[in-house]
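Figure 2 data, in text form.
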Amino acid sequence: MPPAVVYDYGTDIMIQNETVYVEGEATVPAGQYRQEAIDLAYPDTLPPPPVPASADDPSLIPLGVWALVQEEKGDAIMFYQLTATRDGLITGAYSNVLTGESAPVIGSIDKQSQRVAFRSGTEKSGAVIECNLNGLTKDQIGVFVHFGTGQTQEWLLVRMENPDMPTVPTPITPAVQEN
């Protein structure tokens, strides 16, 4: 594995006046940057359908379950279960608890920059979420949500804890009585 590329959206990478700044340096026009993220979210090769990743399948890397939230807007209603393939594709599932909508997640990872972009569903007009791969090892990360090539907002992905599974009680075997 290459060393982790560490950066934070909204701090290390910012969009101001339709220019992308990386660590304070102007880099590319915002529209171009957004299009790169959109291209990552629409890979040429589709990822496998979302299935629960198991320890027995080394081709899938579980990335967790995440809530997408606006920091100042209250409760989470959008949730993403994310998995990566060894080939750099993102798969998973999306659920909106307010609308009841659910959809597959599709995206990819740029292995050099470790930039991750994904979308839910098959519509070309939907939002694209961008984060960095190292951030998906944390409990909370800043992300860009791109609405086409014209608008980007900063949101948060917050890792959801794995639910505690009840333990199965040990069966009690009746004592055998001797006659």
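Caption note: Helices lie at 30-41.
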